[in-house]
Design brief:
Length: 158
């Protein structure tokens, strides 16, 4: 299990997909990309999807994700994405009352129980008291991490 903290954007891309029966169908799919701005998110999802899509397509929506951290699984069977809402529990020293703060994560897993296991695996290494307030499967198809630009090789001088 590997985690990555970044500025994530949820994007929706609409295109004509060839179905199993050979007929084209207009679909809208959701993807998450690591980007610093809406412009970079649009550019990133366009670049990532260009090798999969033939014909016309449009970026139908881009919004800032509520989560800052994504838990990636190395298991091939973990092909779904779950949004987890964790509540971190702290005690206010002045009032001595319990305080809960909500933090969201995106978790790659094959099922809800596996998602819980992955959360416990990552959070078990921390000393923070927490509860899983909610966990739900998303419609996200894939998550694309930022790729550093490859420097162009300088041409040799003659």
């Amino acid at each position: 299990m590997r985690s990555r903290t970044a500025d994530w954007f949820e994007t929706k891309i609409r295109y004509e997909k060839m179905m199993e029966d050979g007929m084209p169908k207009k679909v809208t799919e959701q993807y998450t990309v690591d980007a610093l701005s809406f412009t970079e998110a649009e550019s990133s999802i366009t670049e990532e999807m260009s090798s999969y899509i033939r014909g016309e397509y449009e970026v139908a929506d881009i919004k800032k994700a509520t989560y800052k951290e994504v838990f990636f699984s190395e298991a091939d069977s973990d092909d779904r994405w779950y949004k987890a809402k964790l509540q971190f529990i702290t005690i206010d020293e002045k009032t001595e009352k319990e305080k809960r703060s909500n933090v969201y994560y995106l978790v790659q897993a094959s099922s809800l129980p596996v998602a819980v296991k992955h959360i416990e695996e990552v959070m078990g290494t921390t000393a923070i008291d927490y509860v899983i307030a909610s966990l739900a499967e998303t419609m996200i198809m894939d998550v694309f991490e930022h790729k550093a630009p490859v420097p162009s090789s300088e041409s040799p001088s003659e």
